[in-house]
Amino acid sequence: MKSEFAFINRIRAQAARYPQAGLVHGIGEDAAVIGQRQSHVTLVTTDLLVEEVDFKLSYAPPRCLGHKALAVSLSDIAAMGGRPRYSLLTLGIPPACGEAFWGEFFIGYFSLAERYGVGLIGGDTSAAPDRLVIDSIVIGDAAMNSVVCRSGAQIGDDIYVTGKLGQSAAGLELLRRGERLREEADSPAQRALRAHLMPEPPIRFGRYVASRGLAHAMIDVSDGLAQDLAHLCQESGVSAIIDFEAVPVAAGAKLVTDSSEAAFTLAISGGEDFELLLTMSRDAESALVSTANDCQVRLTRIGEIVAVDKNEPATRLWLRRQGQLEPLAVQGYDHFAQYSGFHSDKEAATEN
Ligand code: ADP
Ligand code: MG
Q1: What is the DSSP letter of 118?
Q2: Distance of alpha carbon 156 from its chain centroid, rounded?
Q3: pTM of this prediction exceeds 0.90
Q4: Could you identify which of 12, 101, 124, 206 might form a hypothetical disulfide with 97, taking C-beta atoms 3.0 to 4.6 angstroms apart as the criterion?
Q5: How far apart are CA 270 and CA 252, in angstroms?
Q6: Does the Cβ of 26 fall within 6 Å of ligand 1?
Q7: Which residue has the least CA distance to atom 19 on ligand 1?
Q8: Do 284 and 157 form a contact (C-beta atoms < 8 A)?
């Protein structure tokens, strides 16, 4: 690898080839300078990707990693109903990642950035002795009155989700079993691998839904449908019913499980689908469906928002099968659960 400054200069030259509307000063100053727009709010989000925790270099091609590092943060901006504008990238670089790695990484990163008009305006770079660490920051904006929060769900709302669920978790399972992404190849397994390695969040859909006033509450599905819907319910002070038959289970989830029950569980608990989950009153459904069509996004109504049951205040999620309700235990991805030295939320709760 060249020096830190040569490395940054190359990123700077690459970043300058892409549009950075409204930017006053980008890479090269002590801080980037962004012009402000009246009546708009600024959205800021960051996602940390740590080698061996969030990805493994043994199966994640560098081009995919560059794409995914940006995609995960774009997903957060979309979930708020914003438009992504700028990004910052902070890297802890281990000796194993050299010139060829970064060449590929930035092809993935910049080609996604270009598609959504996002300019890379800064970051930081240091060495990390034994593993790659990537902090991906995205700055977006939205009209003041169109931001969509997790806390806005109303009793009686329907619940909708984009895409199909469990595809990314299936891809991860296939990677663990030794399958690898092959460019050009197309099969149910390859599509699952691609969903995990190069997610395509419905970024325009999130923004259109917000600007057209078509969501009371929204969240991106990053920790699994059940967990993220539970978060939304928690913030909104409501509960939710999921219809078993309505949940769109991805083909990949069926591929790696041996029963429809197990495929369903993977679909609602597998992480990193980066789809959007939203709640809205039924009267907006036709506008919502045509917005999904405009964005070429698949949209499914999967349940409804209800009041918290006074007799079971702890139950946020209910599963409805053939008209019968049962409490749905929330399982999703927890980064801390698998590492000693960290406590899962469950353990922390019993300690108190
Ligand atoms: P500082 O000493 O203020 O941290 P640096 O020398 O680290 O500045 O960075 C010089 C410029 O390069 C800054 O504008 C910074 O935002 C940018 N930069 C550093 N690392 C990266 C990176 N990985 N990606 C994009 N820009 C970067
Ligand atoms: Mg620095």
Answers
A1: P
A2: 26
A3: yes
A4: 101
A5: 12
A6: no
A7: 124
A8: no
